[in-house]
Amino acid sequence: MAFNYDQYIRGGKLPHIWCPGCTYGIVFKSLLRVVDTLKLNRDDIALVSGIGCASRLPGYVDFNTLHTTHGRALGFATGIKMAKPDKHVLVVSGDGDATAIGGNHFIHACRRNIDITVLVFNNYIYGMTGGQYSPTTPLGHMATTMPYGNIDPSFNIPELAKGAGASFVARGTAYHAAGLDRLIVEAIQHKGLSVVEIINACPTTHGRRNKFKSPTDQLLWMKDTFLPAVAFEKLPPEKTAGKLPMGVLYKKEGLPEYCETYYGLVERLKKQKEGRAQER
Amino acid sequence: MGKIKLLQGNEACAEGALYAGCTFFGGYPITPSTEVAEFMARRLPQIGGAFLQMEDEIAAMAAVIGGSLAGSKALTATSGPGFSLKQENMGFAMLTEIPCVIVNVMRGGPSTGVPTGPGQSDIMQCKWGTHGDHPVICLTPAYVQEIFTETVRAFNLSEKYRTPVIIAFDEIVGHMRERIEIPDPGVLPVVNRTKPTCPPSEYLPYDDSKGDVPPMANFFEGYRYHVTGLNHGTDGFPVNASPRIHTDELRLIRKVEGNKKDIVKFEEYQLADAEVAIFAYGVSGRSAKTAVEAARKEGIKAGLFRPLTIWPFPEEQVAALSKRVKAIIVPELSLGQIIFEVDRCSKGRCGIEGIYRVDGDPITPAQILAKVKEVK
Ligand SMILES: Cc1ncc(C[n+]2csc(CCOP(=O)(O)OP(=O)(O)O)c2C)c(N)n1
Ligand code: SF4
Ligand SMILES: [Mg+2]
Hints:
The structure holds 2 protein chains of 2 kinds.
Chain A: H1 24-37, E1 45-49, E2 64-67, H2 73-83, E3 88-94, H3 95-99, H4 103-112, E4 117-122, H5 157-164, E5 168-173, H6 177-189, E6 194-199, H7 215-225, E7 226-228, H8 229-234, E8 244-251, H9 258-279
Parallel strand pairs in A: 1-2, 1-3, 3-4, 4-6, 5-6, 7-8
Antiparallel strand pairs in A: 5-8
Helix pairs in contact in A: 1-6, 4-5
Chain B: E1 3-8, H1 9-19, E2 22-27, H2 34-47, E3 50-53, H3 57-69, E4 73-78, H4 80-96, E5 100-108, E6 114-118, H5 123-128, E7 137-139, H6 144-161, E8 164-170, H7 171-175, E9 177-182, E10 226-228, H8 244-257, H9 260-263, E11 266-269, E12 276-279, H10 282-297, E13 302-307, E14 309-311, H11 315-324, E15 327-332, H12 338-346, E16 351-356, H13 365-375
Parallel strand pairs in B: 2-3, 2-4, 4-5, 5-8, 7-8, 12-13, 12-15, 15-16
Antiparallel strand pairs in B: 1-9, 5-6, 7-14, 11-13
């Protein structure tokens, strides 16, 4: 039976703002399937975003949704999670939102290992503002603010997340949608800060300026470029050029989760106080 | 009788927050406000509340808004440079109507300025710091006891009007120790946000049909709705059209300006027969009071108008005052900011004289007294 997306979409809020050929819709549907698979109670989900095309996603879904300021979604999300640690807090962010203006919040959320799932929609460009280069734009690529080709070195988002202390790091693509479902499921189930970098295509402001004749070409590029991490690791070094790993790239269980540690402290203080009261 | 304590202004602020039911603090250390954070770091874990030292003031402001949306009464405290960093997200809370309290313990200077000295030069930033037209409530206590009660009032106003409230006091009263009484619970009123009573399917988070302050649902209570910093319709979803944007922005302003009777608070000291008035708040208000006492001893009819609410500005009161006195003296720890408001409301009906100081020291009663004698 076909999956019923409507049950999670807010009545009257479609059509969405995304361009024809934008892959964000694919990820959007993946997220809804995941929520269904995990049987999450939608009253218990807060979906938080920053600013950008990706960050418009929360408006369409029937959860508690919060569309914040550019780059700051993780600050808001951290506040929500600390106030209500038993709820599911998910963040949707663009590559610019998460790693340029929000880079500081991103690394610190990773460091705290707070139980939030961050989905970074990496389309290698600032889509919403019309195609300026971002911290993930590949060298040489054309952007409106790199009219002679990008000279600004890029971040590797999974490496950044891992280095900063995230306990679950994965990469999926809009092309490999079924695999993406599994990654997001695992990310949400993981206790701690989980990051899923999701490779996306922005045909409007990136693809057509960078020799991709159509959105399909960008999807085919994903198909050719990304290999399951196990397969990628088996490649001899000379064959890794132009290839990138996807799947779960890093996972560490059992690390202290921030809210658990904090509220553990609260419990300890409570017991001490009760203990002192009994001694009196 | 409540509890008698010897407290610093910053500590009294934190005590006031707890009294008002604050269970969430997000901050980033900065002199001269840090003691508020340190106090909350000690106390919030003891009562099961959440304390967060974030990576910067931007994140701290964001966390506070998130905490409030999830149902907590939330506080942040900062000074000068940190207050600048908070501005964008403060505007977000104003437009999305999420209650929270922001303390700005004012120091001197633009930039790093005078971290350990008092200032009153953020007072226009309190009003205009974030971009766009927006409602602002800002309270200006001058005594440690007052910092306590005004912090309680700040939370109450914030919850009642669904808007951020700023408390701005200077380094001197923030760090000064005075005897205060912390009233027993129940003595001071504590206001909580009005929640919706309709079924979730009918909930409109920005419904203005029954009044200017729509009931607010917290996240996770069954009322799933959308919050965005884009101008939005009654259902919370982005609107890019006339006339909604215009009418909704007017409502936001009206929430505050239309309730000035409830929000504006001030002290009048020896004003009834005064010929010379002093308009001063915070530490300058304290010096002004001493100056009035000294002037009265010399037979000079001086009086003090001391606002405890600086925004919305006590326009009617200053206008009325300007009709009765020869001059209004405005001492402030800036190169002249709030004097523009006093001047605007006086409409040339009386003389307006500023006393400005930005060298890290307070304006002394002697300085004010000399000015009183000059203009009397
Ligand atoms: C403080 C601030 N600076 C700049 C902007 C303008 N702006 C809006 S979206 C955006 C970039 C978005 O790029 P990305 O995060 O990659 O998201 P995408 O649109 O590609 O999904 C920028 C610079 C803003 N809204 N706020
Ligand atoms: S501009 Fe790019 S990222 Fe934005 S909706 Fe269009 S295709 Fe998608
Ligand atoms: Mg992007």
